[in-house]
Write a structure and sequence with these properties.
mainly beta
Length: about 190
């Protein structure tokens, strides 16, 4: 799929700033994987949720815009943001309720899919380095924020992986957590996405 013209991208930026913000929506998280490496081009992040409160509005001829952020929610102050696929989130198929998927390759090397009750986002560092490192002995807990602009407005989805932690080790260069319950309120990132 071709990237949208720069004039359209500029309009999208204006729409993003002027679109009505909807309420924060805490959701359950299915999985968060953060893979560290001394070689920053081998780092990766994967996030998944199957929460029924995930909703996306739009149809075959619409587009959406997505911000994705992970951060240490134990207080280290570390965080990182991505804009997966830039403006190229388009309808997945010409049928009802197909959801949206990331389109053409993007410099940040993030791909994803969003549907009713479904998030899947994966970011790798093959050409765009991931700066988030697991240099503390343990992360303790990690928060996730996914901000989605669709035809209804902007919704901030959030979750906090601090319950079922499968692996949390700086020595093994990995953080894996599953089955994060719905938080009472959205965890607050130490910094906002640019």
């Amino acid at each position: 799929m071709r990237a949208l013209p720069s004039t359209v991208v500029a309009v999208l930026g204006v729409l993003w700033l002027g679109t009505r913000a909807l309420a924060d929506q805490p959701i359950a998280g299915a999985k968060l994987l953060v893979k560290d490496s001394p070689d920053v081009t081998k780092r990766k992040v994967q996030f998944a949720s199957s929460d029924p409160n995930v909703h996306v509005s739009g149809g075959v001829f619409d587009f959406i815009y997505v911000d994705f952020q992970i951060f240490n929610s134990s207080g280290t102050g570390e965080s990182e943001c991505w804009h997966p696929a830039g403006e190229n989130w388009t309808y997945a198929a010409e049928r009802p309720n197909a959801g949206f998927k990331s389109g053409s390759p993007h410099p940040e090397n993030c791909t994803g899919r969003i549907n009713q009750g479904l998030f899947r986002i994966k970011c790798t560092a093959r050409t765009f380095p991931i700066t988030y490192s697991l240099d503390e002995p343990q992360q303790g807990s990690m928060g996730v924020v996914v901000r989605v602009q669709d035809t209804a407005g902007i919704t901030t989805y959030c979750t906090d992986f601090g319950g079922t932690i499968v692996r949390d080790s700086a020595l093994r260069h990995v953080f894996i957590a599953r089955a994060a319950p719905v938080p009472v309120t959205c965890p607050i990132p130490p910094a906002s996405c640019p």
